[in-house]
Design goal:
Blueprint lengths: L1 H17 L50 H16 L3 H20 L13 H25 L11 E4 L5 H18 L5 E5 L4 H17 L6 H7 L1 H18 L7 E3 L8 E5 L3 H4 L6 H19 L6 H8 L5 H20 L11 H18 L14 H18 L4 H23 L3 H11 L4 H4 L5
Parallel strand pairs: 1-2, 2-4
Antiparallel strand pairs: 3-4
Helix pairs in contact: 1-3, 2-4, 3-4, 5-10, 6-7, 6-8, 10-12, 12-14, 13-14
Bound molecules: zinc ion.
Amino acid sequence: MLKNISLLISIFLAFSLVAGCSSSGGELAAPATTTAAPDAGVVETTAVPATTAAPATTAASTTTTLSDEDKFINGLENAALAVEQGDNVFINCTVEAVGIDAAWSLLDMAPDEYSDNPLSVEDETALTACIDDIAVRRETAAHLDASWGATVSTSPEFFYASDVPEYSQSLLEEALLAATALWGNYGPLEYWVAGLDVAAAEDLGDQFCAKRVELGNLSSVADCLDWDHTPNFFVERAIDSSERIVNGWGGGDAGRNGNRQWGLHLYSSSYPICFAEPSICPFADDQKTVFHEYFHTVQHAFIATANWDLRDELMHRENIWWSEGGAEYMAQVGSQEMRNSGVLTASEWAPLPERFGWMIWDIQEWMSDNPGQSPSTIGYGDDGHVAYSYGAWAHAYLAFKFSPGVLLDSFYPNLNELGWEGAFANAYGMSSEEFIAEFDAFVSLSEETMLEIFS
Ligand SMILES: [Zn+2]
């Protein structure tokens, strides 16, 4: 399995070069690794692609003349473009159709060079099925593109392992619907939730893969079970959550795992411990987590492109303070507002300023351990939780200095057209570099002074 993934990634990288693209990750491989802010129960994770395998040598094939060469090469060009935009299904299909050696040979050249080094008739026939498959899927995706970013009237869909209690399901759905009421209902959206039982988690994985085939996202259940992140995630998280509960710990994993190419906001979550075991952690903690996750949908809904690299750039993914801090700030404030107004089930939690006070400790400890450095440079990884705290505070500061509405009324609506830096400068009247300098000075102030913006 791992070896197979390595080979696929090798080929993906090779094909990316053919297509003039250097993508090495993106929406499909998300969510990214971070640890959460001190008060945040849920930790987002990601699987990092394995290292690439050595390329196999090219196979000498029996050559033949194409019966419809132009059509075939056009199909290859279409496939190369799809791979550039993150379509792993075609890569997988190609390896299965013609074998790794021939796939490597094929993917090592530009589509218009194909006639100089054609495949055997048998392999070409097999590959034609992959090309036809991708053409159908791209046509479907083009149709979905027209509605990407628009709010929808359909409700999010929820899928649970059979051992997730009904009262926990109700609390989770209440929270997600409250978030859609607050920020707009972007969809279609699927939210998949693991339980504690491994067999139930495996059943949920089967259901997930059947859904992918039903919607035409993936070609077969077997492929999905073999290489899609989600079915394995359900099982791993069931084991992890069971251990947490035995130890009286909260926490878990949740993430938006894409998927722009499928025209879908797709989530997977571990067992929501705070919704299920309130003696361990308050409902409010999981309410905040659901709001945080849903805000990632809002961010992605404002980004039109299906290109992974450009999507990462517009999410400002390299330095995560912006997107993760935005989700954290909006979730802390938004879920508190909805609890206060009675939309969310009441739950005792530390007051908002106190929770932001916890984040200050996190930020200032890191700054003291890393003198002269800015938490704005932190990416996903061991120190990621500091970027969440720093970013949440950065958004709190911007909302205080300008207006809470600037983010959704100005920054995001201009993001596609102006790019991240342009949209930032347009919304806040300064470059991000100027802002970071100003904000780093602010987070060096005392906790008491910083918290004045919440008074
Ligand atoms: Zn997040």
